[in-house]
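> run fold YXWGXW repeat-containing protein
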Amino acid sequence: MKLTNLVRKFVVGAALALLPAASFAGVFISVGFAPPVLPVYTQPICPGDGYLWNPGYWAYGDEGYYWVPGVWVRPPQVGLLWTPGYWGWGGGAYLFHAGYWGPHVGFYGGVNYGFGYGGVGFGGGRWVGNSFAYNTSVVNVNRTVIHNTYVDNTVINHTTVYNRTSFNGGTGGIQARPSAQEASFARENHVAPTAEQQSHVQMAHADRSNFASVNGGHPQNAAFSRPGVRAANQQQRIGQGVQSGQLTAHETGNLEHRDASINHQAAADRAANGGHLTAQEHQQINQRQNNVSRSINNDKHNANTQEHPHAEAREGHR
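> ok
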C-alpha cells in the first residue's frame, strides 16, 4: 500500500510540473479518493466588459486537494467560452479532465458549479458579435457600469447547499454522461488556459490555506474578482464590511493599517529584486495576507458593529 501511494504521489508531482503546458489537453492527473464538496460562496462583481467567469474547483497537489478560487478572466480571443474542468471516476481512480476554451461549452461532468454553470452548458451570458452579453439573473454585474446585459430567469442558479457534489461517477458521484452535442463539442479546436489562468492556479497552490487538509474543505478565499489581485479583493471585503456595518471604525483602521504595511513590504521587496518577489518573499506576503483575511472574517462576524461597538469598547478597557 505504501509503495502504491508513493508511486501515485510521484505521478501526481510529475503531472503538476507539466500543468501549464498540458492543462487543456484532457486528463492529466489521477487520485485514489474523491475531492471535497464544493464550498458555497458569493460571486465577486464582474470587473469590466469582456470578463468571463471561471468557477472555482478542487485541484490536487503535493499536500492533497486544494481550492482554486473562482475568478473573472479575459478569454484569449473574442467568441470563446470556458468549459470548466472536472473530476470523474474511471479506471479505479478519480481522473481530472482539465478545462479549456472553445466556441461552445462542452461536458464538465454534470457538476453544478453555479453562476450559470448548472451542470449542462452555460447560462451566464453569450457572445453577441464582438461583445459579451451578461445574464444578470445568475451573474454579478453592475448594470450601471456594464450595459450589455439581459435577464433570463429560466436559468437556475444552483449555488445552494443541496447540490455541491464535485465529481462525476463512482460512489456518490454525479451520474451524468455527455450528450451527442457535447461529444461533438469535444472534437472542436480547443485553446489552452491563458498565462493569467495558469498563474492563478499556481498562486492557489502556493497558498497553504487553500488546502483541504488546512481549511477542512472551507477555503477562506473562495473567489476573486481578477487573478493576481488578492490585495484588491481584501480591500473590497473591508469595504463591504464597512458598508454593511459589520466593521467598526477601530476594526477598519486596524485592517487598513495592516494592509498598507503588506503593500509597503511587497513594494520594498520588489524594488530590491528588480521588480520581482522571491519565492520566500511571496510566501511571507501570502502568509500576512492570510492573517488579514482571517481577521476580516472574524471582525465581520463578532459582536461589534458600527451601531453597537460595545464589546470592542470593553476589550479596550481591560
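The chain is about 35% helix and 15% strand.
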